[in-house]
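Practice problem: Dynein regulatory complex protein 10
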Amino acid sequence: MLPCDRQQQQTVSSSPSKIKITRDDSLKIVDPSRKKLVSLETQRIAGILDECIRKVEMIALLPIVIASPGLLTVGMETGLSETIGDHWKVGKRYESQRHIWESQEEQTPEAKEMSDAEHAVHCSLKDMFRKIQACSTASSTFANVGSLTLQRDECPQRLVEGLRELRLVLLERLLTTPAEERERICRMQEMSQRYHSNLDLVATLEAEVAAAIKDRDEEISKKNQTIRHLKSSLHQMEKISEDFVARTRQEAEKQNHSDQKTSDGRQQRMQQEVSLLRLQLNNLIADNREVELGLRKRKYKVETEIENWIQKYDSDMGEKQTELEDMTQLFEEEKEELRELEELHGVLEVEYTQVMEERRLAQERQEEEERVREVMGRAATVIQAYWRGCHVRKVMRAKAKGKKGKKGKGKKGK
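Answer key — structure tokens:
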């Protein structure tokens, strides 16, 4: 691996945690897709980082380009291909020397030799990038190689991913306004306070848990002692109960013998009482049979009377049912007739309403015509009076003019 690659990989490998923390905790308020870099300084910074990423991607693709000679001749100048080959040789030479220096643990290489080798690699790399920048088709060739290549070296790929993450963080920081920065600082302070309060709460809870565990252990030890004491007491109780059962069994056997003797005597006395009671029962049965016979006769008589009353009730109810059916049929007929009359009444009522409405409208029209006739009569009277007045005035004016004409003629004759 080249020195610049190693240095960039160390820089990226030492910064992922910082990048992750910054992106996750403090820069979530900026959305780069809706902002643009305005100042020239920020655009230059972003351009430098983009150029660095592009160059690292080219360095990562150098082994593939060198391994495929056909890619060096297609779309590239001959001098650029030779420069890339020379840089690859210098890098390989440096790698071999570094491996030799690392394998020789006792002998350390001189600082001048290492600096000369690194300087040669740096100069070769600068020369290669200068020619790639001068060549118009080199960038497109490397882009095509990157799009066609699926398997790349893992270390340069991680370096490129780290630089891209660094670019995102840089854009977020450059796009952050002072207000957003203040908001981020306030949020970080709030998160820090919340973190410290959570630590205090966790410490308090851990102390409470420890105290609870200690109390639980003490309670368990007390319960274990109680269980041992109860086991010993239970063992003693088992012995006492066995003795008690033995004594109780002996006493029960003795009581059983005495009860057996007592029960035998009582059984004889009860058999004598049973025979006496059986004799009394037979006598009562004979007496009750006579009473039962009289009651049976009385019951038969009552049942006969009830049967007669039921037959009479059935005949009366049959007549009543027939009468009820006749009345129901008559009621249905009258109900049907009432329904027809109600329908007829409804029709007549509608017709009556229409007739009354027509009469009302006719009366209103008549009244309106009379009112209009009266108004017209008054108007005609006024018009006639006005006409007569006009006619009279016209006649009077004509007479007045005739008199004046006669007087004039008379004066002229005189």
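Discussion: The radius of gyration is 67 Å. Students who identified this feature from the tokens alone can consider the problem solved.
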